[in-house]
Every structure is written in structure tokens, then in C-alpha cells.
Amino acid sequence: MSPEPATVGEIQTIVAARRLRTAKVVFIGVGKPSTAAILAREIHHPELVLVYESGTIGAKPRRVPLSIGDGELAETADAVVSVPEMFAYWVQPGRIDVAFLGAAQIDRHANLNSTVIGDYDTPRTRLPGAGGAPEIASGCGEVVVIVPHDRRTLVERLDFVTTVGHGDGHDEHGTPRSDFDRQALGLRGRGPTAVITDLAVLEPDPVTRELVLTQLLPGATVEQAREATGWPLRIADAVEAIHPPTDHELTALRELVAR
Amino acid sequence: MARVLPLADAIAEVVRDGDVVALEGFTHLIPFAAGHEVLRQGRRDLELVRMTPDLLYDQMVGVGAAARLVFSYGGNPGVGSLHRFRDAVEHGWPRPLAIEEHSHAGMAARYAAGASDLPFGVLRGYAGTDLEARTNVSRIACPFTGESLAAVPALRPDVVIVHAQESDRRGNVQLWGIPGVQKEAVLAASRSLVTVERIVERLEPRPGGVVLPGWAIDVVAEAPGGSQPSYAAGITVRDNDGYREWDRIARDRSVFLAWMEEHVFAGPSPYRDLTGTPDAPIEVVR
User: The whole model's pTM is what?
Assistant: First the structure.
């Protein structure tokens, strides 16, 4: 018997898990990124090394942890290190291939805000703040961002730059538009390579670094994605339709979440 | 050699009004019992330092014990907002709260510099972020290569309090599981207190164990279950339902105050009642 149809959230998680076919080491926060990485280990990449900010390297959780510091992560890890060691010895030198990050706001060059909505001194909404994100995004090989696709999240202008993505982007010749640029700032990793929303996958244009819609999730349309984006969203010439979740992926995800 | 004192005496000895106080523990081993005792003793105008304020600082900020907060991630991990922290920053309730925020890497470097008695820590960080203009960070050039790096001032709290699994009677402490930033924080402090699940005759070496010699600590106090709803690996488990439930309690000012009155100000143990005597095995909660 086929499983019940996938929800949008399930599809988003499975699309994220599929991106982890070749990475050796992934850095993850809680929520969808964690679920996606655990799922990837279970269904197609058993050698994938999961690294959590709490200092657990090579954690092998069988359940989705509520927090990055759940006991199971430390009990199953290859190594458990202190926070200073995690950032100084593991994140900063670029030993981690891919990092999954979320954010409250993202702009067209994949810069991220997780600090504040409104003015910093008189905030409308005070968010948790940076956590590890700024240095994770500069130190890791690449960043995959997972966010809901709506105009509150995909905005023309961030209220606060917590984490640098592709800065102000490049012009059509590939020249940085300003000093707000990864290379000029000395950031070492490649920065965001994909933004996975609940409608689509956006990827930075190789020349301008502006996010371009390249893939649609099953059931989503270009019009929906345009409507839900706070800037005039660029669409790739050939938009790829993402293959719907297989029964195997969906069943594995549901088993994992139910544990 | 650390002195072993009852928790209330230990807090009375090390924490004073207006102190810069860091209660550390990265998700694991958060010293809730000690923080609650600080509140019961009515300490005020504290500058609270902690990478992840978590529920404990939501409680301390929510009752107005803090004038200032230094932190890097003010959320309820996996659940959402810290509502009391937000209310203080957004509405100044119950009193205005000054903030200084960093990234985790920055805070970790600040503690490591404090422990090393260096004036600042150095890292590749903050570049291009709006944090640079809002916090205490400066750029320096590497004297050897010229590379531009971030310098963050050393953290040297007046008081650091951490929780660990065990100490012996001479106050030598061992913790294991996720070690967070506890060692650096204790060594950066002017005065230090370690609360422990149990006091044992002799410390048995543990895989991944971090040992703090008693002569590097001022005071040790026994506090069984003292990190709940966080946990002490091998002894208690994280009370994830307690973290979820906090979202409801902290959303509403009067529900919060009533909860604090009942569970913190009226009694010594708001979470699980893990009673144990020195040297007796403590029930492992699974």
C-alpha cells in the first residue's frame, strides 16, 4: 500500500536530505535540517558525518533530537568537544563540507537575519540572535538554507545582517558591486549554494550571485513562488521539476519522526 | 582546595548584587538549582553572561534580577522564543535590559582569552555582519601576514557557576558528556562555584571526562538533580517536555510570576525531586 501523500514540510525535508548525497561532513542545527541529515544517513548516505554545534562530532541519532544538546547525540558521537574547540579547530579551518542554516529573513543574495525584526534598539520582534551562524557560514565549504517561502521571510531588505551570504552580489561581469562581498571580507567558504523553501529551490547565479529559482517542488508553480517572494524573483530558463518523494523516502521519514 | 558548602551558603558567599555572573552549560549541565538559589537570596542588578540564556536566564531576567545580558543565542532550543527575554528587550518588562550580543565563536573566544589571562581573543569572524557595529568587537591585522581578524575582549566574570556530575571531598570536579565552555568559564572567573550531582570518595576516570582540580575552584556544593530540566549525562535526562511547557508558562506575565512563586521562591526544587545522599548511588532517570 502506498503511504499517504507527502505534506509540503515532508517534501522540503526530503529535498534537503537529497542534497546530502556527496558531502562527507555536515553541520546542522535543530528542526528540519537535523531531520533531513538524519534521514540522509538512514536512506542513502550511511557514512555521512553529522556535526552539531554542541560539540558532538559524528553523532548517530536514531531519533530527531529536540535540542542540539540532547544526550543521544553525545552518547553516539565519535568525539565530543568543547564549544571553543568546535569553532576554533573544526568550523574555522573549513573541515566541514556543508552547513544547514535557517533564518527569519533572507534577501536576494542569500544574506540572513536571525537577530531582530524592526529597529535594533526598539525591536518589533526580538529573535534569538546569531548563535553559531556567522562563522559557520564563513568557515564551512558551503551553506544550504532552509526557510519557509513567504514575503515575511524572503524580503527585499534585511532588518539586520546576522550572517553574510553573497553580500551585494556581482555585476554581469562578475565584479563585486561593493565591499560587502565574501572575498573582500575574507570569508573562506563558498557561501550559500542553495535555498530550499517549501515551494522551490533557489540557487545563486554563477556570475551575479543573485538567487534564481531553478527547481520547483511537486505541486508548486512559478507564479506561487514569485507571489511569495519580496523581490522580483529571477526564474531559470529551464526550471526543473523535483521528483516527488518516493515511497521509500516518505516511509523512512515518517518512521524517523515517529520514533 | 575548594571548600564544600551547602548550596545556600555557597551562593551567599560568591554572588553579590551588581556582580557580573556567568552560569554556563551548553544545553547540558545548566546550573538551574544554583540560579534559583541566587533568585531566592534576592540578588539584584546582575550582569548575566551566558552563551545560550536558555530557560534559566529567561527566569532570572523575567523576575528582574538582571540589569544587563551578554549572550550569543537567546532562544528555547528546538521550541522557539524565550518570552521573558523578549518581553524585557521589546517592552522593558519588568525592567529595561541592556544587551551585548556576540556569535557563539566570539563568546567562546572571549572565555578562552579570559581563562588564558589574555586581553582579547582572536578569530575569523563577524566580518560583514551588522553585529560589528552593535557589539564589542574590533578588527586587528595579523602582525605576520596582515590578515584582518576579529578581536573580542576577554571575559572575566566576577562569578562563574557551573554544574558537574561529581566531585570528591577535596572539591576535585569531574564532568562528562557535552563539555560546553565550562572549563574556560571557571578558569576565567574571579570566584567560582561548581554544583555537583553527587560527592564521591574518589573520582573514577570517565571517557571524555573533564577534570577541574579542586585548587582551581573556590567552592563546591552538592545539588542533586541541580541541572533539571537540562540534564547531567549518565545521571539525569533532559526534560524535553519541561522545555516545551516553558513556552506556555513564559508567554504570559502573570502565569510566569505565579509559576516562579510556586516553584522557585517557595521551595528549593522546581523540577524533578532527585534526592540522594553523598556516596549513595543516585537513581538514573530514563
Answer: 0.95
